[in-house]
Specification:
93 residues, mainly beta, 4-stranded antiparallel β-sheet, globular
């Protein structure tokens, strides 16, 4: 899986990542990690440049491969950053 995004206003230090929940949104984990896992690396999209940014590929964790999984996009940025975004997608293969 990977995350792709159209960045219209760039902000250094920002990233977008995908998370999943198997309990209706009470707890979240990155799509490449086991539920309850925090930290580590996961494919992301940098918001440091404008344009269509294509993230690197990662392996979708088995826990995220169920019909009832809910997916969301989360972002991190510096405190003063404002990022402009267009279309955001999660791609699988």
């Amino acid at each position: 899986m990977r995350v792709n995004a159209r960045v219209t206003t760039a902000a250094a230090g920002g990233t977008l990542r995908a998370q999943y929940s198997v309990d209706g949104g009470s707890t979240w984990a990155y799509l490449t990690q086991a539920a309850g896992t925090s930290g580590g690396s996961t494919p992301n999209v940098s918001t440091a440049a404008t344009g269509t940014i294509v993230g690197g590929w990662g392996t979708l964790h088995a826990n995220a491969q169920i019909e009832s999984a809910v997916v969301r996009i989360v972002g991190t940025a510096t405190a003063s950053a404002t990022v402009g975004l267009g279309t955001i997608s999660v791609e699988t293969r």
